[in-house]
Amino acid sequence: xxxxxxxxxxxxxxxxxxxxxxxxxxxxxxxxxxxxxxxxxxxxxxxxxxxxxxxxxxxxxxxxxxxxxxxxxxxxxxxxxxxxxxxxxxxxxxxxxxxxxxxxxxxxxxxxxxxxxxxxxxxxxxxxxxxxxxxxxxxx
Length: 140
What we know:
By secondary structure, the protein is mainly beta. It is built from one helix and eleven strands. Strand 5 (about 65-70) and strand 6 form a beta hairpin.
């Protein structure tokens, strides 16, 4: 008997040893209106001031620590494990991994809103070719 899914619901594992060991971004299942990305940094981060003009988004810190610069370089906030930071659309920011351990966080926003403005130029999202978390087949 083959399984044929009639729902768009998804079940997936987002934090396991393989995900923890990786680097860079890995896209979580979602939609145009709700999207998530696991972001993994042993060092560095998003090191250039930018904003997402049409997207509110939140970073949830699962492991490590991130130092965010909000609005201008001098405005610094350190966000630790199990903390989160909400950034309304249009907020200028950049961040870097600043803890003693690897930074692993979930970024939640929207697929189309992830376009950003850097140095006055619109930079389109490039998630189409990104690594993605697999989903499990549902029997209904």
